[in-house]
């Protein structure tokens, strides 16, 4: 479904995505995990065609997103859905209007058809009956499910999720995780999930990709990740504070910053 070759995204000196070769298979849940700043969101945005890479290719059903025309990119984007990290619902619109939004924007369907489609999507995420609520009246878990329904509105082939379980209690996180897994299987969809929630990630993944400093350090089935003997993988899975993955990513020595050595901390 999706394939990248030598994919790079650099922001100045920061190599957010650094030479990634990956494969997202059809009708599977691919989970991209990694610590904060490892490049997960940047990679997800590239895969979803929301940003152009510094170099490399992103093949979506055989077409390179980095090379197609703007018009074609827009057409291809219609075939994917995105659930953003903070749900990104439109606060002045009701739940119904939020889910109907992409249908109103991109189709000329009759209002009665749109109403049926929205009802079906809300039923899918267990929120039928909540159509007239405003986003401010929803819990975090409900907002994520509405965002999921909105991403499903156009019957996408691939849905991208950025941290779908962050900030949720364990039960709501479990509900959202199983929804992703169930929908992928039942609707024969493809899902790409970015998360640092190891438990949720390993429980729904068909394929896991583990990132560190913009590069893939491990990939495979959840079981092979769990039993990996790479110390970086084990540190991440077990959430150990000490190990080969450092907490601070500063490029300069602490003592040099404290002594205001030129080239270290730049104050405005
Ligand atoms: N637009 C940008 N401009 C400059 N640097 C950026 C930009 N976007 C991301 N970065 C940098 O790229 C690196 C990877 O960021 P990214 O947001 O992809 O990480 P992440 O794995 O999603 O982290 P988190 O788990 O905290 O969300 C970071 O060092 C970040 O500062
Ligand atoms: Mg992120």
Layout of secondary structure:
Blueprint: E1 2-11, E2 14-24, E3 29-34, H1 40-47, E4 55-60, E5 63-64, H2 70-77, E6 80-83, H3 95-106, H4 111-124, H5 140-152, E7 158-162, H6 170-186, E8 190-195, H7 198-204, E9 207-212, E10 215-220, H8 222-226, H9 231-238, H10 254-258
Parallel strand pairs: 3-8, 3-9, 6-7, 7-8
Antiparallel strand pairs: 1-2, 1-4, 4-5, 9-10
Helix pairs in contact: 3-4, 3-5, 4-5, 6-7
The protein binds adenosine-5'-triphosphate and magnesium ion (MG).
Adenosine-5'-triphosphate binds at residues 11, 14, 16, 34, 36-42, 196.
Q: Would you identify the regions where 5 or more consecutive residues have pLDDT less than 50? A: none
Q: How widely separated are the two ends?
A: 46 Å
The total strand number stands at 10
CATH homology superfamily name of the largest domain? P-loop containing nucleotide triphosphate hydrolases
The CATH level-2 architecture of the largest domain is identified as: 3-Layer(aba) Sandwich
Report the biggest beta sheet as strand number plus sense, adding barrel if it closes: 6 strands, mixed
**Percent helix range:** 25-40%
Name the average pLDDT: 90
Portion in beta strands: 15-25%
Put simply, the count of helices is: 10
**What is the spatial order of strands in the main beta sheet?**
6-7-8-3-9-10
Number of domains: 2
According to CATH, the fold-level topology of the largest domain is Rossmann fold
Name of the top-level CATH class of the largest domain: Alpha Beta
Rounded Rg: 20 Å
Bound molecules: adenosine-5'-triphosphate, magnesium ion
Give the overall shape, derived from the CA principal axes: globular
Structural class: alpha/beta
